[in-house]
Amino acid sequence: MAARQPSGPPPPPTVCRIRLRYAKRGRLRFTSHRDVARVFERAVRRTALPIAHSAGFSPHPKISWVGAAPTGVASEAEYVEIGLTAPRSAADLAAQLDAVLPDGLDVLDAVVAHTGSLADRMEASRWELRLPGCDPTQARDALAAFLASDQVLVSRRTKGGMRDVDTRAAVLTASGATAPDDSCVILQLVVRHTTPVVRPDDVLAGLRAVAPLDLGAPLVATRLAQGPFRPGEADAEPGIDDPLAPDRAAGGSVDTSLSA
Questions:
Q1: Residue 190's closest CA among 203, 172, 177?
Q2: Which domains does the chain have, with CATH numbers?
Q3: Looking at the whole model, is its pTM more than 0.85?
Q4: H or E segment at 85?
Q5: Could you give the CA distance from residue 84 to residue 193 in angstroms, rounded to a whole number?
């Protein structure tokens, strides 16, 4: 017996994909990823963009999320890819969406997709962790002990139950400093994307597992970048490359050869 198919013509094919970088700032850092997705879908409808949809009885807009930050942390480097049924300028689309998104969800960059999978480029994230009320000596000693360890396990609840996560293996680089106003200690970390994901609070738990570390207020975490990891070579520091750079280098024009 043949499978049932929806009546009517199939949805128009995807002819253009736009990749966006956006920020999640201020109070909106407490917004869940599911709620952020709903806000973006409403923004797409308000701008009347020619959004592509999946086929079937319950078509969904072709909006693909890449490496969303955990609830409660801010980010300057969130990514989403939007499929369209008609060509659009990446800059115009970004401006349209930014105009209707709430303050705190801010579109920062946009390119037309040309090459490869955006998700495959997300190898690591650069995080800034602010530790309010933390003693600088405690922070320095904890970071030194953490980096000197071969393994630092912390227990984390996952969908499959409690699981030990090796936080040390995920941290590629780490450094610390005191804020200019002495209000907090600031840690800069580059963390590899692993399964399960090692989050900023996991790293903080790892630091506390190897040395005393007292905070006067909750951790404040901001993702500054995510993308391909660039190991340090010669005089160059290790870091994170721009994941949109390959598409920008390809010219930024619309590729109409894409399939639905």
A1: 172
A2: 16-120+243-249 (3.30.70.580), 124-227 (3.30.70)
A3: yes
A4: none
A5: 29
* Inter-residue long-range contacts of 159-167, CB under 8 Å, 24+ positions, other chains counted: 163/196, 165/196, 165/198, 165/202, 167/198, 167/202, 167/203, 167/205, 167/206
Q: What is the CA radius of gyration of the chain?
A: 21
- Residue 163 clears pLDDT 60, i.e. is over it: yes
pLDDT (0 to 100) of residue 147 = 97
Amino acid code (one letter) for 81? E
Tokens of 189: 């970390």
87/220 Cα distance (integer angstroms) = 40
Query: Cα(62)–Cα(149) distance, rounded to whole angstroms?
Result: 44
Residue 64, classified by CB atoms within 10 Å of its CB into exposed (0-12), middle (13-18) or buried (19+), is middle
Chain segment 206-223, per-residue pLDDT in tens:
999 999 999 888 999 999
Place of tokens 């969908």: 159
Phi–psi pair at 38, nearest 5 degrees: -65, -40
Q: What pLDDT, in 10s, does the model give residues 96-142? A: 999 999 999 999 999 999 989 999 999 999 999 999 999 999 999 99
Secondary structure (3-state) at 98: helix
Instruction: Give the number of other Cβ atoms within 10 Å of residue 249's Cβ.
Output: 11
Q: What are phi and psi of 164, to 5 degrees?
A: -80, 130
What's residue 253's pLDDT? 41
Phi/psi at 180 (5° precision): -55, -30
